């Protein structure tokens, strides 16, 4: 169950990062509220997952899901560049997430 909480925490990290961008520096109320609610939920789910997962594993996977997910949303939704080096960087993060999961005993 901890892995499910961790994945949802990572997905919520993508949501709050997107809405933080849309909040224009927390000057727009609706995106700002969505940012704060999803950020709080993400941290809560991460903390629940950390009850049974190692700190390094949980935190690395959480941030990795958020980083790669935010990159994908940036490219797909916001029209950000998908240069070869950025794609390689995202692939390396995914490889790190997979290796961390495979090395975890939980």
Automatic annotation (TrEMBL):
Belongs to the drug/metabolite transporter (DMT) superfamily. Small multidrug resistance (SMR) (TC 2.A.7.1) family. Gdx/SugE subfamily. Signal peptide: none annotated. One of its GO terms (molecular function) is transmembrane transporter activity. This is Guanidinium exporter. It is found in: Cell membrane. It is a multi-pass membrane protein. SUPFAM superfamilies: Multidrug resistance efflux transporter EmrE. GO terms for cellular component: plasma membrane. One of its GO terms (biological process) is xenobiotic detoxification by transmembrane export across the plasma membrane. The chain crosses the membrane at residues 33-50, 57-79, 85-102. It comes from Sphingopyxis panaciterrulae. Keywords: Cell membrane, Membrane, Transmembrane, Transmembrane helix, Transport. It comes from the Bacteria.
């Amino acid at each position: 169950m901890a892995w499910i909480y961790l994945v949802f925490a990572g997905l919520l990290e993508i949501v709050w990062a997107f809405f933080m961008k849309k909040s224009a520096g927390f000057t727009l109320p609706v995106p700002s509220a969505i940012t704060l609610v999803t950020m709080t939920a993400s941290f809560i789910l991460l903390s629940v997952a950390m009850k049974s997962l190692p700190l390094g594993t949980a935190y690395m996977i959480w941030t990795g899901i958020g980083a790669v997910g935010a990159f994908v949303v940036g490219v797909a939704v916001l029209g950000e560049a998908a240069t070869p080096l950025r794609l390689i960087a995202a692939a390396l993060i995914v490889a790190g997430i997979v290796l961390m999961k495979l090395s975890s005993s939980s």
